[in-house]
Amino acid sequence: MMSRSYTNLLDLAKGNFQNINPERKGLSRVMSVPGKFSDMEDDDEPASSDNPSTLSVDRMIIVSNQLPVKAVRNPDDQGWSFAWNEDSLVLQLKDGFSEDMEVFYVGSLNVEVDSKDQDEVSQVLLDRFKCVPTFLPRDIYTKFYDGFCKKQLWPLFHYMLPPVEEGSRFDRSLWEAYVAANRLFSQKVVEILNPEDDFIWIHDYHLMVLPTYLRRRFNRIRMGFFLHSPFPSSEIYRTLPVREEILKALLNTDLIGFHTFDYARHFLSCCCRMLGLEYQSKRGYLALEYYGRTIGIKIMPVGVHMGRILSVMKQTDKESWISELKKRYQGKTVLLGVDDMDVFKGINLKLLAMEQMLRQHPIWQGKAVLVQIVNPARGNGIDLEDIRTEIQDSCKRINGLFRMPGYEPIVIVDTPISVGERVAYHSIAECVVVTAVRDGMNLTPYEYIVCRQGSDTCTNFHGLKKSMLVISEFIGCSPSLSGAIRINPWNVEATGEAMNQAISTSDSEQQLRHEKHYRYISTHDVAYWSRSFLHDLKRNCADHNRKMCWGIGFGFGFRVMALDPNFRKLSGAVIVSAYKMAKSRAILLDYDGTVMHQNAINKSPTQEVISILNRLCDDPNNTVFIVSGRGRDSLAEWFSPCKKLGIAAEHGYFLRWTQDGGWQTCVQSSEFGWMQIARPVMKLYTEATDGSSIETKESALVWQYRDSDPRFGSAQAKELLDHLESVLANEPVAVKSGQFIVEVKPQEVSKGVVADKIFTALSGKGKKADFVLCIGDDRSDEDMFEAIGNALAGKVLASNASVFACTVEQKPSKAKYYLDDIAEVVSTLESLADVSTTLQ
User: Fold this and answer.
1) Dihedral of CA 545/547/548/551: which sign?
2) Helix crossing, 172-192 with 4-14: angle to 10°?
3) Which residue has the higher pLDDT, 4 or 458?
4) Positions of the region Disordered (predicted)?
5) 54: DSSP letter
6) Closest Cα partner for 346 from 461, 233, 488, 450?
7) How many CB atoms are closer than 10 A to CB 543?
C-alpha cells in the first residue's frame, strides 16, 4: 500500500498538485501539537526505530549513495563475499570520531543482488559491517543515478547549463526516480534510527531530498549534510526546474557543509534570491535562520587518510612497481595527471598545454613526459565517447610531432590500476598537473604530497621530500595549497608556461613549497575534517530539546517550525477572554507588514480594515493607535474614515489622538540641518544601486532598496549605514536599518516613546490600561515591545494587566506571541471587534 507521505512527495515530483485522493485523511496545514508527526507517517511503517540503541552513547549513521564495502559473487554462484573498501571516504572519516561512538552505514551496493538473496545479504552486512544496504529496483536506479544524478545534477553543479535544443527539455520522470530513491534510503535509515541518541550524516548530491523524509518523521533528529561537488552560482542553479524543492529539503538539516567558501556563498545566494533568506555570521560561524531553526553552514575541505596512504606506500615498497617505473622513465622528467574520464576534468587541455610547453621550450623535447592516468568514468556521464576520442586524437597527434626513438611525450594509462600502482607513479613524478575546469575537491594533489614526503621505513620513498603542483584555480583544494602554481586551464599557453616553471624550479624551492603543503595536509586530514564537522553538528543541535517544534507545509515545502517555549502563537480564545474582562484597553498596531502587505501596490487600507478599526474605536473602553513610520499626510488621508483612531506618524515624531485633535510634535528639537549632510550621501548610493530610492519625510530620510537586487542592495545598505554613522557622528540623530531600508531620524524618536506616552496619558486620566495588544512586524516595533515591559515594571499599566506583545511571523523578537501573517492579524482584530459590538 502506498503511504501518504509517498503520495505527497511523488505527486509533487510529478507536478500533480491537484490529484490528491479525497478519501485519504488530509494533512493539516499546521500541526497544533509539538512532537513527532505520527499522523504524517506511512501506514505500514512504525514512527520509531525498530532497533533502538541499547547504549546511552551517541551513534552516527552515515548515509551515502554507496556503502564502503566491496561485494563479490562467489565463484560457485552460491552466496557473496564482502570486504571493507579501504579507499572509501565514508569509511575513513570514522577515524575522527571517539572510539566509543557506534557507526552505522546506509547505502547501496555496487552490484545487483537478486531479490531472493537480499534478506540474507542485509543480515550479513548488518552483523559483520554494521551496514544497511538499500536495494534500488533496476528501473529506479537507472533513472536515479545515470539519469537525474549524472545527466541533470552533475553537469549543472559543474556549471554546465542545460541544453536548449529541441527534445532536451527537463525529464520529470528522472526527478520522480530521484525522489523515489531518496525515500527508499530514508526507510533504511529509519530501520536502525534511534532519534534520541543518533546523529545522521548525509553525503553528496545523490541524497539531497532525503532530509525532508527524515525530518517529517522525527522533528528533533540531529542531521548534517555535506556536498562533495561544487555548488553553482545562482544564475546557473536557477535554471533547475526543481530548484526550490532541493533548497528547502537541504534546509531540513542542521548543518550543511561545503569544501570552499565559494560553494557556500553560491548556496547562500540561492537561498537569498529564491527563498528570501539572509545569512548571519555568529561569532565566526555562518548560519541561516529558517522558521526558528538555525542551520549552520560549514566550510571545511576534506583531507586524505594519512594512515591509508602510508600503508599502501609500505606495501608498494615491497613490490617491483617503483623500480620498473624508474627504469622505464630513467633520465626523463615525469609530469603526472590522474583524472576520471569526465567532461570536466580538462584532460585534453592538459595535453594541449604539454604540446605548448614542448613548442616554447624545446629543451624539454626528449626529456619531459606527461603520464596521464585516466580512471574509468563513474556512471554514464555526458559526452564520454566524444571526450575519449578527443583525448586519443590529441595524444596521437602530439606524439607524432615530438616522438623520438625511445621517447613519447605523452603516455596514456587508460586501464584500471591499483592504488599501489598509483602511489608508485606519485613517487617518480616531479610534478602533478590538474587542469579540471570544475571539480568539487580533487584529492590527487594531497595524495601526491604525502607520497613525496616519503617514509623512513620505505626504501623507495626515503629522501624525496620535494614536490611541485600545477593546479586549476577551479578545484576545491586550490585555496588550501598556497604553494602551488595556480592556473586557468582554459589558457593553454599560460598552463604550458606553468608546467615549465614547475619542472625548472630549484630543489630548494621545491622543498620549501613541499614542506608548506605537507604541514597543512598532515594536520588537516580526513579525521580532522570529520571531527570538526561533528563538533559543529553537536553545537548546532544543542538546543533541540529546549524548543517546541511543529511541522508545517506539504511535500517538499515541509519544514519544522522551532520556537522558544515562551514564544508561542497568539490564541484567539485567550485574547478574547482577556478582552472581555478588561475595562481600559490600549491597542497599538503597526501598518506596513501588519495590516497592509509590504509589497502591495495600493498602500491604502482595505475597507475591511477600516470597518474593523471603526468598530474597535467605537468601544469607549478602547484606545486604538496606528503607529507607523509613514508620513502624517498619507496616514491622515488613508484613515480619514476613522474619526476616533489615534495616529503616530514617522515613528512617533507626529502624534494625534483623534481626527479632531491637532498633531503634536513629540520631540522638542526642530533642527534638521543634518538632512543637508545625509541627503547627498544617500543620493550617491541611490545612483549606484539600481532600484533604490530616497523618501523624504518631515522628520526623517529613508533610503529604500526593496526593488534592488537583494544581495547587492543588502551589501549597499550595510555600506550606507556605516557611511552615515560616520558623517553624522556629531549630529542628534539615529541611523537605523530595517526591512529593505536605512533610515535617519532624530534620536528621541521611536515607537517605544509613543507607547510610553500613550500608557502615561491613560494612567494620568486614572484609566491605567489593563489590556494591551501591540502588533508589529519589523525592528522598529521591537521598541514598542520593550516599552510595554518597562511600563508593566514601572507600574504605568494596571497590576493585573493582560499584555499581548505580538510579532507577525515567527522570528527572534522581544514579543511573547506571534501570528503567522497579515490575514491572521486581521482575523484576530475582527474577533475583538465582534466582542465590542456584542458588549455595546
Assistant:
1) negative
2) 150
3) 458
4) 34-53
5) S
6) 488
7) 12
Residue 638, C-alpha cell as written in the block: 488613508
CA distances from 536 to 41, 532, 605 (A): 30, 6, 47
Q: Give the span between the Cα atoms of 423 and 336, in whole angstroms.
A: 11
**Contact status, residue 459 vs residue 318, Cβ threshold 8 Å:** no
Closest CA to 297 of 307, 287, 305: 287
User: 454: which residues sit within 8 A by CB, 6+ positions away?
Assistant: 313, 427, 461, 462, 463, 464, 465
C-alpha cell of residue 792? 508593566
Average pLDDT over residues 526-537: 96
Helices then strands, counting H and E runs in the chain, come out as: 27, 32
Helix or strand or coil: residue 138? helix
Provide DSSP, 727-793.
HTTTSSEEEEEETTEEEEEETT--HHHHHHHHHHHHHHTT---SEEEEEE-SHHHHHHHHHHHHHHH
The per-residue pLDDT for range 156-207, each reduced to its tens digit, is: 999 998 877 656 688 999 999 999 999 999 999 999 999 988 999 999 999 9
**Of the candidates 601, 593, 667, 657, the residue with the CA atom closest to the CA atom of residue 628:** 593
Residue 822 burial by Cβ neighbours in a 10 Å radius (0-12, 13-18, 19+)? buried
Local confidence band at 34 (pLDDT 50, 70, 90 cut-offs): very low
129 near 103, Cβ under 8 Å?
no
- Do 526 and 305 meet the contact criterion of CB atoms below 8 Å apart? yes
CA 173 to mean position of chain CA atoms = 26
198 grid coordinates = 543518533
Q: How large is the C-alpha radius of gyration of the chain?
A: 33
Q: Please, are residues 717 and 699 in contact by the beta-carbon 8 Å criterion? A: no
Between strands 622-627 and 664-665, the pairing is unpaired
Cell of 696: 523624504
With bands split at pLDDT 50, 70 and 90, how would you rate the model's confidence at 381? Answer: low
CB of 635 within 8 A of CB of 590? no
Rounded to an integer, the average pLDDT of 807-831 is: 89
| Pair 489, 435: CB distance under 8 Å | yes
Distance CA 29, CA 8 (A): 13
Residue 521 has pLDDT above 70, yes or no: yes
Longest pairwise C-alpha distance within the chain: 109
DSSP state, residue 354: H
Burial of 202 (0-12, 13-18, 19+ CB in 10 A): buried
Q: Report the distance separating Cα 254 and Cα 560, nearest Å.
A: 11
Lateral strand order in the sheet of 802-808:
568-569, 817-819, 802-808, 771-776, 585-589, 622-627, 646-649, 654-656, 664-665
CA distance 463 to 453: 8
Q: What nine digits make up the cell of 310?
A: 602510508
The three cell numbers locating residue 522 = 598532515
Instruction: Provide the 10 A C-beta neighbour count for residue 160.
Output: 16
Q: Measured between alpha carbons, how far is 619 from 836 in angstroms, rounded to an integer?
A: 6
SS3 105: strand
Residue 102, C-alpha cell as written in the block: 557506534
Task: Count other C-beta atoms under 10 Å from residue 659's C-beta.
Answer: 15
Q: Given a cut of 90, is residue 545 above it in pLDDT?
A: no
**Angle, CA of 554, 557 and 562, to the nearest 5°:** 95
Annotate 417-458 with three-state secondary structure.
CCHHHHHHHHHHCCEEEECCCCECCCCHHHHHHHHHHCCCCC
DSSP three-state, residue 560: strand
